[in-house]
Amino acid sequence: MKKILLTSVLTLSLFAFDKVLPQKETIEILKSTPIYNQLKALKNVKYKATKKDGFYIIEIDTPKGKALLYVTADKKYTIIGRVINKNGRLLIPNFPKNAKIIQNGVLFTFGKGKKDIYIVTDPECPFCRLMEKEKKNILVKNYKIHVILMPLPFHKYAKAMSYYILAGKTDAEKAKRLQEVLAGSNKWKNFHPTKEQIKKFNEELAKSKKAAMELGAQGTPSVYDKNFNPIPWPKLGEKK
């Protein structure tokens, strides 16, 4: 009997990623899951799969967004949610990323460092604010930061905050506004964008959302290196 586990955490070890599996094999794996019929009913859905440490990891790409599905090697269990190891790293396949989509979603860049990183952030996110508090000086000094704004729908003021940030005339001003908002500033409340500005900002945020999806971001903050590999933000600035 097949079972489905709705969970967010499973302790695992990290090993090297295998190659992307053939599409035919991926479909056969999906057929073993209890949600295959639901997936089959969707239009314009794409799949990519790999195998790692006893799991088939399948990226499901739909017009509404991306998701990761984990299927145990014996195909008895299907896991929907985040699977992380004891060090806090997400167990995700390193699928090739479309650099053009990601670059188009970068809304501004700042920082004095030589290392490039991409940060997916929500100005109202408490964890993004924690990262700003703990890593601000380290980030600016050590990295060239490419910002991808992703205001989450369940954060009431995130989009208004994003509008205020995007209204900055230069990258430096946008970065300053982001840092102010993350630090708790309420200046954004005094900004009232025009209809034309809202249209422009929404178009920019749509590109940013696509970039976040391409990176596989499942929350904020999400940090990636120059090759679009995920980095646990608490480890930013640490010597390897």
Percentage of residues in helical conformation: 25-40%
Termini, distance in Å? Answer: 45 Å
How many DSSP-defined strands? 10
What's the mean pLDDT score? 85
CATH architecture annotation of the largest domain: 3-Layer(aba) Sandwich
Please tell me what the overall shape is.
Answer: globular
Strand-pairing-aware structural class: alpha+beta
CATH topology of the largest domain: Glutaredoxin
What is the overall number of helices?
Answer: 7
Percent of sequence in beta strands: 15-25%
Give the helices and strands as they follow along the chain.
Answer: EHHEEEEHEEHEHHHEE
Sheet with most strands: 5 strands, mixed
CATH superfamily heading of the largest domain? Glutaredoxin
Domain unit count? 2
Over all CA atoms, what is the radius of gyration? 19 Å
Characterise the protein shown here.
- This protein is α+β, with helices and mostly antiparallel strands.
- It contains seven helices and ten strands.
- The protein folds into two domains: 3-96; 100-235, Glutaredoxin (3-Layer(aba) Sandwich).
- It has helices at 23-31, 36-40, 99-104, 126-142, 158-166, 171-182, 195-215; strands spanning 3-6, 46-52, 55-62, 65-72, 77-80, 108-110, 115-121, 143-149, 222-225, 230-231.
- The chain has a five-stranded mixed sheet with strand order 1-5-4-3-2, with helices on both faces. It has a five-stranded mixed sheet with strand order 6-8-7-9-10.
- The longest helix is centred in the last third of the chain and has 21 residues, at 195-215.
- The termini are far apart.
How do the helices and strands line up, and which of them pair or pack?
Blueprint (H helix, E strand, L loop, with lengths): L2 E4 L16 H9 L4 H5 L5 E7 L2 E8 L2 E8 L4 E4 L18 H6 L3 E3 L4 E7 L4 H17 E7 L8 H9 L4 H12 L12 H21 L6 E4 L4 E2 L9
Parallel strand pairs: 1-5, 7-8
Antiparallel strand pairs: 2-3, 3-4, 4-5, 6-8, 7-9, 9-10
Helix pairs in contact: 5-6
